[in-house]
Amino acid sequence: MKAVLMRGYGGPEVLEYADTRDPQAEPGEIVVDVHAVSLNPADWKVREGLRKGDVKARFPHIPGRDFSGVVRKTGAGVSDFQPGDPVFAVNEQGCEGGYAEAVAIPAALAAPKPDFLSHAQASALAMTGLTSLRALEDEAKLRAGETILIHAGAGGVGGFAVQYAKHMGAVVYTTASAANHEYVKELGAHHAIDYGQEDFAEAAPPCDVVFDTIGGEVHARSFAVLKPGGRLVHIAAGPPGFTPPREDVCVIRPDVRRDRAHLGRIVELAASGAVRPPYIKEMPLADAAAAQEISKAGHVRGKIILRVR
Ligand SMILES: NC(=O)c1ccc[n+]([C@@H]2O[C@H](COP(=O)([O-])OP(=O)(O)OC[C@H]3O[C@@H](n4cnc5c(N)ncnc54)[C@H](OP(=O)(O)O)[C@@H]3O)[C@@H](O)[C@H]2O)c1
Question: How far is the CA of 20 from the centre of ligand 1 (A)?
């Protein structure tokens, strides 16, 4: 099969679109013919060796965490899927990924893909939805009437989070460049803050929850907008050596475990219209290296999806 092979750590040149062996379905696994695979910032971070501490890659390694496709084969003991079933999934870090014509994955990490979502849309909602639901629903326990600041509402995770928070009945502030204000308002943000022109710490009111998807200095300054007892939930690290400056707020880094139940919850939210697929830029799988460089530049609106078939 064709796949994108990461030959080692480095720049985009370590990615090669080449032939490799087809995956086999081990007991408990399914092999999925991939139609669409999502591009995440983690993909280029792993490629550059920035995640060596928590992601052990053996080379050549196939990147790609969340994807959508059709079951080709089932391994021993798999009774919940049949060949031909459309599925979508988020695979564990370090495993061979979805930048390929086929991938093997534990059946327990996959969920049926509903007909009303295309493969591109399902893969765009998978990791972004899983992360947002773990952060806001399971950990921050966002409630109706609360005020939330979501950083990077125009991005993949932020775009899902804005929609979810609006659906929950929260008052939603988000940061985005001016060019994305219309987009984040379409997603449901009540207020958009142009982070290039305004200091969000002054523009946002006291918040019950901040969802930080940016990290660094943004993480450090986010403490200023929290009400006493507020929750800062973050998926990107603060500055090196940073110590939270307040003890009257709760700081949460969610463990984004993969499971079928959360994918089912994403389908439920999409079916009800509470969350819709983000803006999607599709690129061919063979252009994965170029796509990762676009992601690295930090201004993707919605999601980049690599089209496999
Ligand atoms: N399991 C996990 O813990 C987990 C899971 C998923 C993601 N992540 C991490 O979470 C982060 C976000 O992921 P993502 O997929 O949502 O990223 P993304 O889609 O690539 O985010 C791009 C967006 O960031 C916005 N942006 C850039 N700089 C900004 C700033 N200073 N303030 C506000 N917005 C800004 C851009 O909007 P403008 O063009 O308007 O600037 C763009 O729309 C990444 O670091 C990723 O690695 C962690």
Answer: 32
Establish whether residue 63 lines the binding site of ligand 1, counting it when its CB lies within 6 angstroms of any ligand atom: no
DSSP per-residue letters across 27-43: TTEEEEEEEEEEE-HHH
Cα dihedral: 275, 161, 109, 83 (round 10):
30
pLDDT for 148: 99
> Which residue type occupies 197?
Q
**Ligand 1 near 265 CB (within 6 A):** no
* Cα of 214 from ligand 1 centre, angstroms: 6
Least confident of 56-60, 204-208, 239-243, 299-303: 56-60
Q: How far is Cα 247 from Cα 244, in angstroms, rounded to an integer?
A: 8
At 57 the pLDDT is: 79
Window from 52-56, 143-147, 160-164 with minimum mean pLDDT: 52-56
| 93 touches ligand 1 (CB under 6 Å) | no
Task: With residue 282 as reference, give the H or E element that holds it.
Answer: strand 280-284
Q: Which of 185, 255, 32 is nearest to 123 (CA)?
A: 32
- Per-residue pLDDT tens digits for 249-266: 999 999 999 999 999 999
Confidence (pLDDT) at 55? 80
The mean pLDDT value of the chain amounts to 97
Measure 85 CA to ligand 1 centroid, in angstroms. 32
The token duo for 62 is 């196939």
pLDDT band at 54 (very low <50, low <70, confident <90, very high): confident
3-state secondary structure at position 290: helix
40 lines ligand 1 (CB under 6 A): yes
User: Residue whose CA is closest, atom 29 of ligand 1?
Assistant: 152
- Give SS3 for 156: helix
Task: Pick the residue whose CA is nearest to atom 21 on ligand 1.
Answer: 155
Distance, CA 32 to ligand 1 centroid (Å)?
28
